[in-house]
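Hey, I was hoping to borrow your eyes for a little while. No rush at all, and the record is pasted right below.
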Amino acid sequence: MSAKQTGASTVALKNTPDPTSPQHRSPDGAGAAPPKRAAPGELAVREGEEPWTPAEVAEARGGLEQDAQRLRTEILSAETAISGLMRDSGDGAGDDQADTGTKNITREHELALASSARERLLQTERALERLDAGTYGLCENCGRAIGKARMQAFPRATLCVECKQRQERR
């Protein structure tokens, strides 16, 4: 992407190649610059993609906010269940081994659900922060646009497909 000087800051222009951009760096991401902020009101898109419309941005934000609220409710529910399981685990006198094992498995399952929900909530809140900062849709590894279609399918994405594939191969 090429850059246009505006006052004291540099703004990336969409769909114009720049040989010094992160996409022309080594495939392992070495030396990748931090993601550049999009111009106010604009989000990053890949070459050939239509720019984000205000309605699409609002839909993405609304979906993320709904997810965050749902996850908070899920975490509260799981924590309530865990609290009850922990309270009940002390009065297991007379339980046979199968009952004790079932209680342990149930407690571990609830703990795993709560942990997973907390992680997804953090990812969702981070995506909302990136929307506010103008870096939503930029790969945190190489700085290139992740792609509008990928962001619409998985709004919490932080890596482009190429960087995600490299990460999963490790």
